[in-house]
Design brief:
This protein is an alpha+beta fold. It folds into three domains: about 60 residues, Arc Repressor Mutant, subunit A, CATH 1.10.10.10; about 35 residues, no CATH class; about 100 residues, Beta-Lactamase, CATH 3.30.450. It has ten helices and seven strands. It has a five-stranded antiparallel sheet with strand order 4-3-7-6-5. Strand 3 and strand 4 form a beta hairpin. Helix 1 crosses helix 2 and helix 2 crosses helix 3. The chain is elongated, with a radius of gyration of 27 Å.
Length: about 250
């Protein structure tokens, strides 16, 4: 029966991470405020747990082995969570008040309070921002879509937008404006796009979508160029939806 593996101590993981960053045990010792032999002892204990060398040593210093790289990748996340917890506790103890727009400032990474800095850890910020976007995006009664400015290919759309087009998501996502065949007039779409390309945004525009049954659904909204992933994308938000041709009104 194999012996249970001892969980590495955070101090050991931090020491390995600093050795990799500084390139030497002596520099890591200086950063940690401990002796070089103490650093070597922590690294030796960590290598004993893993069962393989984590640092390659030479006359110029140290560098991570392949196994060391894998350990540091996980260690970095654990250390970030530790720092976030410490900063959160410090904020609670200090009773620092929040800004009236603290939520937005946190997302933008511009708040200087300890608690918000903790929330700015890359992995945590990305996951929480994506979750918030998903909730707001799909819960909105406003029809919203993100598409390609040229072809009109839809990258993402909420339920309200699909309802505005009168088509299920499977017939909307990944398809261009000509493929969806929901625009009453592709000429009018191109005219709208000329305006958006010129001004960057078009407010209070009427958008007309032809339903599968031939009726026309109309709405007023904003069409704006934004950048996502370093590329221009089209953000469309449509409200005040009505169905024409005498059919019952159906708000998206």
């Amino acid at each position: 029966m194999s012996r249970p593996i001892r969980a590495p101590e955070l101090s050991e993981l931090e020491t390995l991470t600093l050795c990799a960053a500084e390139g030497s045990l002596a520099a890591a010792a200086l950063q940690l405020g401990i002796s070089r032999p103490a650093v070597a002892k922590r690294i030796a204990a960590l290598e004993a747990i893993v069962g393989t060398p984590l640092l390659e040593r030479n006359t110029r210093g140290v560098r991570l082995t392949e196994q060391g790289v894998a350990v540091v990748a996980h260690a970095s996340r654990l250390l970030a969570e530790r720092d976030a917890l410490v900063e959160e506790i410090a904020a609670l103890r200090s009773g620092v008040g929040e800004s009236r727009i603290s939520g937005v400032r946190d997302l933008l990474g511009r708040t200087s309070t300890p608690a918000s800095r903790a929330a700015q850890r890359p992995e945590a910020l990305l996951a929480e921002t994506e979750q918030l976007f998903e909730i707001v995006f799909h819960a909105s009664a406003t029809a919203i879509a993100i598409s390609d400015p040229g072809s009109g290919l839809v990258y993402e759309a909420n339920d309200a937008f699909c309802a505005f087009l009168g088509r299920p998501r499977t017939e909307v996502l990944g398809r261009s404006a000509s493929e969806i065949k929901a625009w009453e007039s592709l000429v009018s779409r191109e005219q709208l796009m000329d305006r958006v390309r010129r001004d960057g945004v078009a407010h209070d525009v009427e958008i007309r979508a032809r339903q599968p049954d031939g009726s026309i659904r109309t709405g007023h909204g904003t069409v704006q160029l934004v950048r996502l992933g370093g590329r221009p994308r089209l953000l469309t938000a449509i409200g005040d939806v009505r169905v024409l041709d005498g059919r019952p009104s159906d708000a998206a």
